[in-house]
Amino acid sequence: MPAKIIDGKELARRTREQLAVTVAELTETFGSAPGLAAILVGDDAASETYVRTKRRQATECGIRSTAHRLAGDTTEADLLEVVRGLNADDAVDAILVQLPLPRHIAIRRVLDSVLPYKDVDGFHSRNAGLLAVGQAETVPCTPRGCLALLRDTHGDDEAGRLGKLAGQHAVVVGRSSIVGRPMAALLTAENCTVTLAHSRTRNLPEVCQQADVLVAAVGRPEMVRGEWVRPGATVIDVGINRVERDGVSRLVGDVAFDEASEIAGAITPVPGGVGPMTVAYLLHNTVELYRRRRAGESGSG
Ligand code: GUN
User: Fold this and answer.
1) pLDDT recorded at residue 40
2) Domain span including residue 42
3) Ligand 1 atom at minimal distance to the Cα of residue 47
4) Which of 71, 84, 166, 187 is the most buried (most CB within 10 A)?
5) Confidence at 201, pLDDT banded by 50, 70, 90
6) Cα angle vertex 11, ends 196, 207, to 5°?
7) What pLDDT does residue 240 have?
8) What is the mean pLDDT of residues 7-18?
């Protein structure tokens, strides 16, 4: 039986709708709207598109957004200066440094220069560490969006209160600090049994076949084949890869969708699966950071 197609676009729309209500209430209470600042270095076309989408949807939710565009040859010192300015700006609740950065810039130094309580991506070492020890504060947007899709697909509520994922074997393919590692930590906190696989994993197809929940985040077009999928499994495809097929440019995921959708129980499409959820949880994190600052939890005033 063909898989249920998980509609990320629709869940993201519902998430943003609820956020807009929350933002309106908080803005009324505190007298100013949440503020999101995006930093973009260089002219990567995909990053431009992502930042434009993030800003448009932020505005639609009632969040103020600003963009700081820097040339591709900007020095690390100048970029750090821009971050320092935003750290000190009281109107900015959330700072996003769009990745990738040009190769001459040390990514970790930049990510760790963002104040942890303004770190909307959850990429600061402190936030990554808190997630790793089960004390998460701000969680990276893509894995958080994947978790929301899994909870919804498995009939759990959005806080995971029914614990429907507990005991499932989740295999995450890809160990990036943006998706794979935080995804594994989130699924562990959800009481899944988690295997974090990657390009050096032996017998990767057999490992994937053990998965009740399979999350593919490797950045390789259609690497996960249909026969790697256990019948009835839930497949979350994080990949967004642009490929040329028969002279036509199209987007494909890390999973061979046509094959896998014949075997899986449920599967996310590309596009329209994980992508919209990443943006929805960016807005969610922005509102959370704003709420915590206003409540004085961060000790930042
Ligand atoms: N580049 C790819 N994914 C992301 C993301 O989630 N956040 C940022 N800042 N950059 C990215």
Assistant:
1) 98
2) 22-116
3) 1
4) 187
5) very high
6) 20
7) 96
8) 98
pLDDT of 298 = 55
Query: What are 89's two structure tokens?
Result: 């700006």
Helices (H), 72-228: 76-88, 107-111, 125-132, 141-153, 180-189, 204-209
What is the rounded CA–CA span in Å between residue 141 and residue 246? 34
Residue 300 has a pLDDT of: 52
Say if pTM beats, i.e. exceeds, 0.90: yes
Can you list the positions of beta strands (E) in the chain? 4-5, 35-41, 64-70, 94-97, 169-173, 193-197, 213-216, 234-237, 241-245, 248-252, 266-267
Same domain, 251 and 153: yes
Per-residue confidence (pLDDT) for residue 173, from 0 to 100? 98
Residue nearest to ligand 1 atom 4, measured at CA: 99
State whether the beta carbon of 97 lies less than 6 angstroms from ligand 1. Answer: yes
* Residue 110 Cβ < 6 Å to ligand 1: no
Nearest Cα residue to atom 8 of ligand 1: 98
Ligand 1 proximity of 285 Cβ (cutoff 6 Å): no
261 Cβ inside 6 Å of ligand 1: no
Residue 133 lies in a domain: no
**Positions marked catalytic:** 54, 98, 121
Residue 297 lies in a domain: no
Q: Are residues 110 and 228 in the same domain?
A: no
**CATH of residue 49:** 3.40.50.10860
pLDDT value of position 110: 98
Check residue 31 and give its pLDDT. 96
> Same domain for 100 and 161?
no
